[in-house]
Design a protein that fits this description.
4-stranded antiparallel β-sheet, 2 helices
């Protein structure tokens, strides 16, 4: 007589080990049913991720960090709770709007229409003129946010290319301009233009040997990057740092900004001053194309020697100046407005051209042709 031990159902389907109590011990990612009981180990288990929608769970005994508290109200769920598991393949069939392993992330609407990139929310930056929030824990380089919330690496949005906008980057943007009939409350007061202030402080090679002059910056080259209201990015030609001859330094900066393509900056004044070894540069936007709030310009201070443009030596600058939250600040707000088509026309989002109302003309409808 021969004894055969085959009491486990379907011999665990070849995906587990039959235990002495005639119960299958399934291999990883195998089980049966929604509860994944061992059964005969015939079903695949789909990957788990932090659930998008969940019921509150038990609080951690002592969540000492934000990361420990991240999963308090969002437990792990199969397919993140936004898909159906295919038990034959172990893959999630995600619902509309979700994608990836275990349906872990949002899919951007219409794949950003081919005019943008799909970005995680923690990688996004301030959309426009940002106040200085560095004191509140925000990054100072690029003004990005340190994210510790449950939807990190999950929530995504479209970051549109230049000249395109809307949630799915499907619309071409129209020019912005000042409403020619929108007067200030006090017409006797001078108009205020936006002024951006830049602080150049030489970097310290050694904290015990602080730099006492800006000599190390003399003769080095840098550039400014300007971003228009239509999200076009332009970088100037190399600018030679010369605090020994401030009038010439100011002239070089102004010429570089006015030389950007398409007259994207059609009017600007520049002033500079020195205090100790600090050099201050104020840029005032005066042209019609740059009236109203503008994006903050960026100082390109990293070396660009080969394979990039413009070719600059870079500046050894100190960042995160003590007692000052940013090297770039908005010194004066503009009291000019900046509206799509100057608020005197309708944007054709297929062409990016303004269809001006009767009595107005121009690229952004801010030229009055008829007295109304």
């Amino acid at each position: 007589m021969a004894a055969v031990n085959a009491a486990c159902d379907n011999q665990c389907s070849g995906h587990g080990t039959c235990m002495l109590d005639d119960v299958c011990n399934c291999y990883d990612n195998w089980g049966v049913g929604l509860s994944h009981d061992s059964g005969d180990c015939s079903d695949r288990v789909c990957p788990y991720e932090i659930a998008w929608v969940d019921t509150p769970g038990k609080l951690a005994a002592s969540p000492t960090t934000k990361e420990n508290a991240r999963g308090r109200f969002h437990k792990y769920a199969e397919c993140a709770g936004q898909g159906i598991c295919d038990r034959s393949t172990g893959e999630c069939a995600c619902f509309d709007g979700y994608e990836g392993k275990a349906c872990a992330r949002y899919s951007c609407p219409n794949d950003c229409s081919g005019h943008g990139t799909c970005e995680y929310i923690e990688d996004t930056t301030f959309a426009a003129n940002y106040p200085d929030y560095s004191w509140d824990g925000f990054h100072q380089d690029g003004k990005t946010f340190p994210v510790h919330t449950w939807d990190k690496t999950k929530t995504r949005i479209c970051k549109c290319d230049a000249l395109y906008g809307d949630i799915d980057c499907s619309k071409k943007m129209c020019p912005f301009g000042t409403d020619v009939l929108d007067h200030r409350d006090n017409l006797l007061a001078s108009a205020k233009y936006q002024v951006q202030k830049f602080l150049f402080v030489p970097g310290q090679p050694d904290l015990l040997l602080p730099t006492i002059s800006n000599f190390d910056l003399q003769g080095k080259t840098f550039a400014f990057t300007f971003k228009s209201r239509l999200n076009e990015t332009f970088t100037t030609i190399p600018i030679v740092f010369d605090s020994n001859d401030l009038p010439d330094f100011v002239h070089d900066i102004q010429t570089a900004l006015l030389s950007l393509p398409n007259r994207v900056i059609d009017g600007v004044t520049v002033a500079a001053s020195i205090s100790g070894y600090n050099v201050y540069v104020n840029v005032t936007f005066t042209g019609e194309a740059v009236q109203g709030p503008q994006h903050m310009m960026v100082v390109e201070d990293f070396e660009c020697a080969a394979g990039c443009t413009p070719k600059i030596t870079g500046l050894n600058l100190m960042t995160a100046i003590p007692l000052q939250h940013s090297n770039t600040t908005e010194l004066q707000l503009s009291d000019f407005n900046s509206f799509e088509c100057g608020r005197r026309g309708v944007c054709d989002y297929t062409s990016g051209l303004c269809q001006c109302f009767v009595g107005y003309t121009g690229e952004n409808c801010n030229t009055l042709t008829t007295l109304v």
